[in-house]
Amino acid sequence: MTDETRNQVWDFMRDRTLESRVGALPFAVFLRVFHGWSASYGFPLPLEHDVESALEAAGYRLIPGQRGDWLIKGLRFVPKGQEAPE
Question: Which of 28, 37, 34, 33 is nearest to 71 (CA)?
Answer without folding.
Answer: 28
